[in-house]
Amino acid sequence: MLNIKTKNRLLIFLSIFALTIILTIFLFKTLRNNVLYFYSPSEVSKTDEKAFKNNIRLGGMVKPGSVETDDNEIKFIVTDYKKEIIVTYRGTVPALFEEGKGVVAEGKLKDKNFFLAKRILAKHDENYMPPEIQESLKQNAK
Amino acid sequence: MLSNFGITVSIISLLLTTSILYLSYYDLKSSGNNVSKKIYKFAFFQIVFTFLGFITLIVAYVISDFSLINVYENSHTTKPLFYKISGTWGNHEGSLLLWINILVLFSFLFLILNKNKNKNFKLYTLIFQNLLISAFLIFLLTNSNPFSLLYPIPTEGMGLNPILQDPALAIHPPLLYIGFVGSSIYFSIALAALISKVDSKSLALTIKPWVSVSWTFQTLGILVGSIWAYYELGWGGFWFWDPVENSSLMPWFLMTALLHSVLVLERRIGLYSWVIILSILTFTMSVVGTFLVRSGILNSVHTFANDPSRGLFILSFLALMVFSSIFIFFKYAPDDNKNYKIFSKESFILANNWFMIFFLAVVLIGTLYPVFLDTLTGQKISVGPPYYNFILAPFLLPLLFLMTLGPKHKWISSDMIGIFNIALFISVILFIIIFLSIKDSSILMLLILLFSTYLITQTIFDFYEKFKNKNINLSRIISHFGFGMLIFSISLNQIYSVEKSFNARIGDEKNFQNYTIKFNNLETFSKNNFKSVKGYFEIIDNKNTTSQNLTPEIRVYNQPEIITYEASINTRFFSDTYLTMSNISNSDIFNIKFQKKPFMNFIWFSVLLISIGGILQFLRFEKKI
Question: How would you classify residue B367: left for phi > 0, otherwise alpha for psi between -120 and 50, otherwise beta?
Answer without folding.
Answer: alpha
